[in-house]
Amino acid sequence: MGCLLATGYTSTCETKKKKNGLQGDVYLFNLDGPGGKLAFTEGSSPSEISDIVMGAGDTAFKLAGSKLMHTYSSDLSVPTRGNQFYMQNLILKFLEDSAADLEFTLELVASESLVAVIETYNGKYIILGMKNGLSSVEGTMFTYDVDPAADVATSVALSSEEDYHKAYFFDTDEATTKAKLEGYLTA
């Protein structure tokens, strides 16, 4: 017997008014840090996470950016043999303006398992990389051009093979959720 559809869709007229896109801030965590592997507390369903449990010495960082700067996509992979999985693809864009920014880029590219929390344009927080962690993948990082309107941001593509396409990070309301994320920050 195959898998059965058991949960209904919850679309409303309000759902149809929502916009696509991401806000600029991204919260980054090391999935496997000095305190061990991060743990996650489920909220009202397995697709909702209400807490990230960090161990001693674990760190969280915030990459501040502008609206619609970063991009996220999820691709479904259904191999002929084996289990399906989702490729979570996150492209972070930021300006490198100092030597410290260059060092950040080197660390970001070398990181092997990151968890990212990103805010949608509609105030929902998506959490990525919870099981296997996001890692950098090949791609163009930046292009300089004589056109002053050309994009001069650095782009770093991250990807992870996960068994979920995305989950929401949520605790009580939007303000509580944002405060919790800010409370995780160490730098």
Structure keywords:
single chain, 187 residues, mainly beta, seven-stranded mixed β-sheet, four-stranded antiparallel β-sheet, 13 strands, 12% helix
Could you outline the blueprint of secondary structure elements for this entry?
Blueprint lengths: L21 E9 L1 E2 L2 E2 L1 E4 L5 E6 L6 E4 L7 E7 L7 E10 L4 H12 L3 E7 L4 E4 L6 E2 L17 E9 L4 E3 L4 H11 L3
Parallel strand pairs: 5-13
Antiparallel strand pairs: 1-6, 1-9, 2-3, 4-5, 7-8, 8-12, 9-10, 10-13, 11-12
3D architecture notes:
With 187 residues, this protein is mainly beta. The protein has one domain (27-184). The chain contains two helices and 13 strands, in the order E-E-E-E-E-E-E-E-H-E-E-E-E-E-H. The strands form three sheets. It has a seven-stranded mixed β-sheet with strand order 4-5-13-10-9-1-6, covered by helices on one side. It has a four-stranded antiparallel β-sheet with strand order 7-8-12-11, with helices on one face. A two-stranded antiparallel sheet has the order 2-3. Strand 4 and strand 5 form a beta hairpin. The model has no long low-confidence stretch (mean pLDDT 82).
Largest sheet: 7 strands, mixed
Strand content: 35-45%
Number of helices: 2
Q: Strands across the major sheet, in which order?
A: 4-5-13-10-9-1-6
Question: H/E series, N to C?
Answer: EEEEEEEEHEEEEEH
Overall mean pLDDT stands at: 82
Please give the alpha-carbon distance between the first and last residues.
50 Å
Q: If you compute it from the alpha carbons, what radius of gyration comes out, rounded to the nearest whole angstrom?
A: 18 Å
What share of the residues lie within helices?
Answer: 10-25%
Rough outline: globular
Query: Ranges with pLDDT <50 over ≥5 residues?
Result: none
Number of E strands: 13
